[in-house]
Amino acid sequence: MRRYGKHTDEDDIRQRPNRKGNRPRTNIRPKHEDAVEGMVLTVDRGRLTCLVDGHVVMAMKARELGRKAAIVGDRVAIVGDLSGQKDTLARIIRIEPRTSVLRRTADDDDPFERVVVANADQLAIVTALADPEPRPRLIDRCLVAAFDGGLEPILVMTKSDLASPDKLLELYGALDIPYVVTSREELENGDAAERVREQLDGKITAFVGHSGVGKTTLVNALVPKDRRRSTGHVNAVTGRGRHTTTSALALPLASEGGWVIDTPGVRSFGLHHVDPSRVIHAFPDLEPGTEGCPRACSHDEPECALDQWVTDGHADPARLYSLRRLLATRERREGD
């Protein structure tokens, strides 16, 4: 049976309904010329808190971004309701190119890469001098991640009232890394925060450290009171700190022009994402000694020139041991 007459109109044609209830797919994407730029401050279960023109806006990722995720520190283009009022939700439609990335894996055997912070200028590696004891190999891993991701490292040593910083300063002195030594009393009276702030003004600085080293306490001393986070304690039995920071959060410095990004405390810092050939770049006191190494040297073989480099007094033997420990861990992973 003929349903339509000889002279049909487009409006007369019945369209088959879309079973999924969504619009037909198209390769044409909106340009969003009215999008404004914002900075991601924190991410929580798919909702992103962003700073737009001086006020906070809640947003979600647009479908056209696919699986690409926005992280703390990202510069993003946002459309929709930008008022920041309660129960409003904007949409992130573009993530701008990143200038730096701090990445890590749970361990060296884990292929899942976790992007922690984007666009930071510096990485403040916070370590306690006691309670808990410093972990030089964790510091070395953070240095590798900083150099690999394009961040300038800073070493912040806390709790100097419990132990001397001389040993760590001797170990890392050859790297010419900026450092600040603080004590609990100095954190309370503000002297330590002022010295740390001198290294941070005008820059975006990510803070990373083992749980219980006083990282969040230090961040709290740097930011306005209404933005502070809770602090925890060190377990007297295990010597480990309790996680008080569960997600990365960007906070403005008390002075204008700088940001600190507080990240969750880490108990391991995997480097699965870092090519082993680039690990040596995190050891500038050892790198010149590789000029005499044979081609494709693993830096852990009889012909390696680094042994003579250390014997001649150009670097501390502990640094070479740390490098080889990292490389050995990488080799074990690749051999699995």
Any overview of this molecule?
By secondary structure, the chain is an alpha/beta fold. 21% of the residues lie in helices and 22% in strands. It is built from seven helices and 13 strands. The strands form three sheets. It has a six-stranded mixed β-sheet with strand order 10-9-8-11-13-12. It has a five-stranded mixed β-barrel with strand order 1-2-3-5-4. The protein has a two-stranded antiparallel ribbon with strand order 6-7. The protein is globular and about 70 Å long. The protein starts with 35 loop residues before the first strand and ends with a helix.
Question: Any key phrases for this structure?
Answer:
7 helices; alpha/beta; 336 residues; 21% helix
Quick overview of this protein structure:
By secondary structure, this protein is of the alpha/beta class. The chain has seven helices and 13 strands.
Q: Kindly state the mean pLDDT as a whole number? A: 81
Strand order across the largest sheet: 10-9-8-11-13-12
How far do the termini sit from each other? 69 Å
Approximate strand percentage: 15-25%
What is the fold's blueprint, element by element?
Blueprint: E1 36-44, E2 47-52, E3 55-61, E4 75-80, E5 90-95, E6 101-104, E7 114-118, E8 122-128, H1 136-149, E9 152-158, H2 166-172, E10 179-181, H3 184-189, H4 191-200, E11 204-209, H5 215-222, E12 249-252, E13 259-262, H6 306-311, H7 317-335
Parallel strand pairs: 3-5, 8-9, 8-11, 9-10, 11-13
Antiparallel strand pairs: 1-2, 1-4, 2-3, 4-5, 6-7, 12-13
